[in-house]
């Protein structure tokens, strides 16, 4: 079955760290760019970070830049989000999503829409 | 960043009604727009891509239209299982952005 399964979410104190994982199965993970999207309580979806197929290009939202890192291990069919210096406004359900395609030039990068999503993992930042 | 203005934020309609949601981009995004359905506790689901293309397996009562800055999403005949929150999403350039969402209910 083609699926994405997130894990690693839990209650963490402000200033703490957390590493989320996303396990892919049923498709060739190493052929797709990947993205993290989050949904805070009472709010809508928000793009967090994107990584290229090879992992050599990453892009992060301004709100998490310098605190979060996106990475992947194609040998393990896994995507990761390292979250440091967590704040209360990082509390959200975090989804991993597969990009439909990768178009890349020296000055342009695009993944297309997100055609496969996981169920999400809940991160709560609170003392 | 290019912003997406989605409206309405919520709406209720009767089974069988035609429902339309709009999304406006702050700059020309050509047709780099998708629509997703999200139900509580479920994975978001892609319905429409490239503004007007129906994703495989999605019922034909769902449709999308538009280009440039103005886009619409339509359910031609609302069904009980369509109760969900719907989002537009632009993917022309990073950082990507989503609309604020439309919570759709049944009267």
Question: Could you characterize the architecture of this molecule?
Answer:
Chain A has strands at about 5, 10, 20-25, 35-40, 45-50, 60, 70-75, 80-85, 90-100, 105, 110, 115, 120-125. Chain A has about 130 residues and is mainly β. In chain A, strands 2, 4, 5, 6, 9, 12 and 13 form a seven-stranded mixed β-sheet that branches. Chain A is globular. Chain B is an all-beta fold. In chain B, strands 2, 4, 5, 6, 9, 10 and 11 form a seven-stranded mixed β-sheet that branches.
User: How helix-rich are the residues of chain A, as a percent range?
Assistant: under 10%
Shape of chain A: globular
Poorly predicted parts of chain B: none
Residue-averaged pLDDT of chain B:
96
Which structural class do you get from the secondary structure elements of chain A?
Answer: mainly beta
Number of helices of chain B: 0
Largest interface: A-B, 28 and 27 residues
- Oligomeric status: heterodimer
How many individual helices of chain A?
Answer: 0
**Biggest beta sheet summary of chain B:** 7 strands, mixed
What order do the SSEs of chain B take from the amino end to the carboxyl end, as H and E?
A: EEEEEEEEEEE
* Residues in β-strands, percent of chain A: over 45%
Number of strands of chain A: 13
How much helical structure, as a percent, in the residues of chain B?
under 10%
State the low-pLDDT regions of chain A, or none. none
């Amino acid at each position: 079955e083609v699926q994405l399964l997130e894990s690693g979410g839990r209650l963490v104190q402000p200033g703490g760290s957390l590493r989320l994982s996303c396990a892919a199965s049923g498709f060739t993970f190493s052929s797709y760019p990947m993205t993290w999207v989050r949904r805070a309580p009472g709010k809508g979806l928000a793009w967090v970070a994107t990584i290229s197929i090879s992992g050599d290009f990453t892009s992060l939202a301004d709100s998490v830049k310098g605190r979060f890192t996106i990475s992947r291990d194609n040998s393990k069919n896994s995507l990761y989000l390292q979250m440091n210096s967590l704040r209360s406004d990082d509390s959200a359900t975090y989804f991993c999503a597969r990009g439909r395609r990768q178009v890349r030039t020296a000055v342009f990068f695009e993944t297309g829409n997100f055609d496969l999503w996981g169920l999400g993992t809940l991160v709560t930042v609170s003392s | 960043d290019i912003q997406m203005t989605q409206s309405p934020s919520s709406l209720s309609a009767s089974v069988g009604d035609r429902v339309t949601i709009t999304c406006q981009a702050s700059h020309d995004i050509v047709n780099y727009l998708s629509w997703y359905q999200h139900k509580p506790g479920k994975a978001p689901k892609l319905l429409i891509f490239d503004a007007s293309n129906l994703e495989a397996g999605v019922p034909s009562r769902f449709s999308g239209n538009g280009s440039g800055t103005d886009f619409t999403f339509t359910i031609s005949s609302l069904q009980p299982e369509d109760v969900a929150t719907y989002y537009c999403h632009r993917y022309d350039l990073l950082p990507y952005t989503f609309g604020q969402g439309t919570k759709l209910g049944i009267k």
